[in-house]
Amino acid sequence: MIAKDVERLRIGVLGAGPIAQAAHLEATCKARNADLVAICDVAEDLLARMAATHGPERTYTRYEAMLADPDIDAVIIGVADQYHVPLAQQAIQAGKHVLVEKPLGVSVEECEALRAAVHASGLVLQVGNNRRFDPGVAFARTFIREQMGQMMALKAWYYDSFYRYTMTDNLQPVPLASVSAQRPAGNPKADKQRYFMLTHGSHLVDTARYLGGEIVQVQARFTHRFGAYGWFVAVDFADGTLGHLDLIIPVQGDFEDGFQVFGERGSVVARGYLPWYHKASHVECFSATDRQYHRMLGEDAYTYKLQIEGFADTILHGAAQRGASVDDGVAAMRAMVAIARSAESGQWVQLADVSGAVSNMLEQDAR
Which of 161, 158, 200, 246 minimizes the C-alpha distance to 358? Predict the structure, then answer.
């Protein structure tokens, strides 16, 4: 049995689509310090199915009605990227805390406007970069900050797999859809270069910032061959650390994300797995102090649950925010736009100088 805390955050989940079905609804039910009070979706058939499965106290077909519910403390926004910022703005105006799926938004300007609203409100907004709650990643970050000394270089990568759905179809619940579901105009997934950067690049740049600190500038190269998209990005961090980020979607091989970090008194190597396995990243930290490798093993790695628990701890008990803040979300958006601009020009691009959205660069022929 799941042992629940006495004091719990009362959550309403907006969206009964794929990410809510695969992650947020069950994770909210399982979180030790949260309760699933409500689910909201315009698709009544989908809403009824999810309510029957997860048993919220009530359901809503209108977001405004859920936001007006005084029994709800916070909302999880698990809908299309294009809706993230306007729906988060509505929640903040209604006095609700927000956990919004990554990426924070789709342009620098809208993310900056949301940041201003969040800071003015005093409410908590957390971006759903669940990798921060991978115990292996957290173990590496602690080692980097407390034992490694000055950092010299960081390499990070994220490789999705051609065979991903062979794995995830067995790990996730059977997805349910509805003809009544609300979708953005057009098909945002049609522009794969833009979609892959927002969907997968948002994880990569957040992990790089989580471990290495602020990114100042980037220089990116891009290639597209045989249905695969690749970005190779040189990075300068604010503290002088040199970095390199690789994003390939997809690869002929297993899914993998990971990183290597080299420092004054040690080094780190990590390999991550599909998050749906709920398996902590394999991390080895070498310490020059004792000339030994240190590993973490056996931790709870249900990152979607852990991010809700961290979100709730911040709101209920004033704990330091472990998850990505609105400032982190803005910085990640700037990094992705800078990578897109640099891929177009081949030049170094300062994050502070970028505006707009991830560009719709014409797909390049094989070089």
Answer: 200
Order the strands of the 282-287 sheet from edge to edge.
292-295, 282-287, 266-272, 256-263, 151-161, 242-251, 228-237, 215-225, 349-350
The H-or-E segment that residue 280 falls in is none
124 φψ region: left (φ > 0), alpha (ψ -120 to 50), beta (else) = beta
Indicate the residue type of 329: G
Q: In terms of C-beta density within 10 A (0-12 exposed, 13-18 middle, 19 or more buried), how is residue 367 classed?
A: exposed
Query: pLDDT tens across 107-124, in order?
Result: 999 999 999 999 999 999
How is the beta sheet containing 74-77 ordered, strand by strand?
A: 58-60, 34-40, 9-14, 74-77, 97-100, 125-127, 324-325
Global confidence as pTM: 0.95
Rounded to an integer, what is the distance from CA 181 to the centroid of its chain? 23
With contact defined as beta carbons under 8 Å apart, do 14 and 87 qualify?
Answer: yes
Tokens 């970028």 sit at which residue? 354
CA distance 318 to 339: 35
pLDDT, tens digit (0-9, with 9 covering 90-100), for 328-339: 999 999 999 999
Question: How far is residue 31's CA from residue 309's CA, in Å, rounded to a whole number?
Answer: 6
| SS3 sequence of 161-183 | ECCHHHHHHHHCCCCCCCCCCCC
33-48 CB burial, b ≥16 within 10 A, e <16: bbbbbbbbbbbeebbe
- Which pLDDT band holds residue 367 (cuts at 50, 70, 90)? very low
